[in-house]
Every structure is written in C-alpha cells, then in structure tokens.
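User: Assemble these into one structure.

Assistant: Restating your components, then the assembled model:
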Amino acid sequence: MLTCKEVTHLLSEGQDRKLTVAERVRLEMHLLMCTGCSNFRKQMDFLRKACRRYIHSLPSGKQD
Amino acid sequence: MLHETMAALPACPSLPAMTAAFDAETLSSIRRDLLRFARLQLRDDALAEDVVQEAIAGALAGGREFAGRSALKTWVFAILRNKIVDAIRERSRSINVSALSAEEEAMDETFDSLFKPNAHWQPELAPAAWGDPEAALDQEQFWAVFESCLKHLPANTARVFMMREFLEFDTDEVCSELKISTSNCHVILHRARAGLRRCLEQNWFADGGTSC
C-alpha cells in the first residue's frame, strides 16, 4: 500500500506526466480511504488553477 | 476578418490619438505589473528591470498598432516571457539548479515533520479541507498572499516551479533547459507545491479562508 508521503509525490507528478494505470489504481485506492490525501489532491488542483488564473490575469490587467 | 474590420474603419485612423492612448501613465502601470512578474521569476531586480524595459521597447518599436492598453500589455507580456526564458537559459549555464540550499533542506524537513515515522500523516497535521477555495481567486488580498508565498520559495525551487506553471514549459523542457534529471525535476516541483500549499494554508486558509 502507498504511504501518504508517496501519494503526495504521485499527486504532484500527476500534474507533470501521465501516471501509469498501476499508479492510478493504487492512488485512487489510497484516496478513497484517506481524507488528508484527498484534501492534498484538491489543494494541488487548486494551486494549478490559481497559477493559471494568476498568469492569465496578468496580461489583461484584471489584477490592477 | 481582422482586415475586414480595419477596412471598415475611416481611411485615416488618427495617429495622435493612438499614441496618446499609451501615455506615460499607461506605460508605467504596465511596466509596474510586468516588473513584479519578472522579479518573481528572475530574483534579480536589475535583470528584471532590463528585460521589462527591453520588452516594452521591443513592443513599441515593432510599429504595430494596438487596440488599447490590454492589447499592448498582452503583446509586451508575450515578448517578456521569451526574454525571461532567455535570461533563465543564459543563467542556467552558471548555476547548479540541483544543488540543495539550506532553505530547500529546511523545506524538506518541514514537510517531513507533517508525517509519522511510517510516512502517513500526523493526525493533527494532515491537510484539512479548505472550504471554498475558489472564492479566494476573486479576492485581491488572496493574490498578495499568493505572491508573497511565491517570493518565499528558495530561488532555484521557484525557478523550476515558475518555468513549469507560469511559462508553461513541459516538465521535459524544464529539465533539459536547466540540465537536471527528470526525477530531480519531479522532486523540486513537489517541494515547491508542498511548500506553497503549506504557505497558503497557514496564511490564508487557516481561519476558514474568510480573511487573511
């Protein structure tokens, strides 16, 4: 079984490369049972979204 | 389509009006925003000044016409991105991105301290729900916290993270530009994300995300 620490690495890598089927299965199994890691996943997704918003709002000046 | 629109305009667009649209104030506000971004990326104020100056000069020298401030800013920003990438590329020849600084080691220790010896979360330190984080995206104060968290990342960690997330390189490109291994690239990106997560949690989401 994956440890929570390993899960955080997989969740981060999942933003940078395609995870293998085996990795995804183990990841999802862990996430089903682990609230801390599920929250970590949502927060990683949020971070990506915030970065996109930051960079795309910069040129148009919405942040002024 | 663009040409049709242009053709529909009066034959002689007023050049003075066009120039006046980009008065000193407009340019200096664009400059300020882009400088903030370049400083975050480059961690070198003098170099940031240079690239922003060059980008603005480049955009204006191109002889293009811009339909307003935001079109000009978008164009300058596109030039700026390329200039930042060049500067990072240039600099990556002289710095060793994979060398761990004391700050980076400290980040790893802080991250490790969230876990029990068996590498599962310490119950009281496990990531808690952030409520409705999307709401933060519309709050000006959130972006100040976001930028300050970015500023607190160690320089090399920040460089890798920002190339990936802000300059939108593929991970493979980041690794090859900075001459680091793919696995090291993943480690650095994880360090950056985990650090930013923690920083946002402590400085924004700790009290339910309603205030700073």
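Chain B touches chain A through 43 residues (CB under 8 Å).
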